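Risk register update: the risk of archive-format incompatibility is retired. Evidence:
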Amino acid sequence: MIPHPRGRARGPDPRGFESLAALRDRQAGLLSGGEQQFLALLCALSLDARLLFIDEMTMGLAPLVARGLVDIVKEVAAEGVAVLFVERHLHIALGLCDRAPVLSHGE
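Archived output:
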């Protein structure tokens, strides 16, 4: 279960978060890129926010790690959290969103 600040649980522990428990004594700066992204997402979710801003969450990550993060964001969005994100990989972005404005060269 993901810890919830108001005593409720958010559901089953999504893939990836359980691996952070083994790394709890390691400084965040020494985590891999994927581990850092999972940690950042877990920190954001622990605040019980109604809106989640995500900027290029999958950049530089292995496809399997990126898929794990995407699955978590899908679960959170299904629970009613609004998600606003920037993503370079169109197939990932379109798989996550209800609406998709697309910018090309900043326009």
